[in-house]
Amino acid sequence: MSDYVEPADDLGEAWLRTLELVHARGGRRVNVLTTISDPLAPEDPAVRAAIDALLVPGPHKSGTIHSVQTVASTIFPQDLYQAPPVAWDPALPDEEKQRLDEAADDLYAAYGGMLPLLCTADGNSRGTYFGRMVSWPGKEAGGYNQLADRVKYLRNERSAGRRTHNLSDIAVGGEAEPPEESREDHPSALHDAGVQVYAPTDRRQRGFPCLVHIDLTLLDGRLSMLAVYRHQYLVTKAYGNLVGLARLLAFLAQQTGFEVGELAVQATMADTQQGDFGGRKGIKALIDSARGKGG
Q1: What separation in angstroms does the CA of 188 have from each of 63, 149, 169?
Q2: Which one, of 214, 219, 207, lies nearest residue 266 by Cα?
Q3: Host H or E run for residue 112
């Protein structure tokens, strides 16, 4: 049965409500929808401290543990983006627009230069999420940059005064490749390319990529995001995923001048990983710690 998590104002509370719901219903649920109304709101320090204390980087029976920051960086490498103190606007002076363009280009170039090395790291042999977004299929620089095309398209919408649009209704088809035609000659052909992170030929039953789709929707000048996960690991990955997605949404909003809307995550399987973290008692202890009830 599908589960709807009561929307939360910040990502920490959204993560905790999701963990509580799935824990209360046995530890695994299908089609769980989590929504954050203000993904850029300050994190709850108690919630963040609880998950940081548990996720000590290193070997673990569940697999290699990574910090929240490391997981977030797989979706958006914040340290590589030197954000200018302005948001894009059609009326911005050309030099300010250039600063925004250069900041984005530097991000893409820096990450592209790192890709070959990143793909040698544990778990990255099939590429990385951000690599697939900026250089499809994600193993080396020079591939199709989906984010750059999305920024270009959204800026065109903003310049034309359009404030409502669904950008990728069915972004699970295709392989995120640009059309054969010239993008300059046929810009409309890209409108349904989406920000895709997998190929339909992917026959793996589990493992990378758990994030299979990102959908962007513009409504009343607010840019919202929906991410679909086929298996959401609520302890080791989910909090970092939310942080990374919020940062990605903030980047797209700054680069296009739209306001940040809501962030939603649909997990086709949500898993508390209780078998790896002390059973139900262990997950309850995590929840209590995040709620400030730890002993």
Answers
A1: 43, 11, 15
A2: 214
A3: helix 94-118
- The CA distance from 99 to 93, in Å, is 10
How far is residue 14 from each of residues 22, 34, 175, measured CA to CA in Å?
12, 7, 31
What span, in angstroms and rounded, lies between the C-alpha atoms of 263 and 217?
10
φ/ψ region of 275 (left if φ > 0, alpha if ψ in -120 to 50, else beta) reads: alpha
The whole-angstrom separation of Cα 289 and Cα 113 is 40
Contact between residue 197 and residue 172 where contact means Cβ atoms under 8 Å apart: no
Q: What is the DSSP letter of 219?
A: E
Torsional class of 194: left (φ above 0), alpha (ψ -120 to 50), beta (otherwise)? left
- Rg for the chain (alpha carbons), in Å? 19
Distances (CA, A) of 209 to 17, 96, 166, 203, 257: 24, 37, 24, 11, 30
Report the C-alpha gap between 50 and 63 in whole angstroms.
20
CA distance 141 to 217: 28
CA distances from 43 to 16, 58, 68, 117, 152 (A): 12, 25, 13, 32, 31
Each residue's pLDDT, cut to its tens digit, for the chain (295 residues) gives 799 999 999 999 999 999 999 999 999 999 999 999 999 999 999 999 999 999 999 999 888 899 999 999 999 999 999 999 999 999 999 999 999 999 999 999 999 998 877 766 665 555 678 888 888 776 677 888 889 989 999 999 999 998 887 655 323 223 444 444 434 543 433 444 455 554 444 444 444 458 888 999 999 999 999 999 989 999 999 999 999 999 999 999 999 999 999 999 999 999 999 999 999 999 999 999 999 986 5
Instruction: Tokens 């995550």: give the residue.
Output: 265
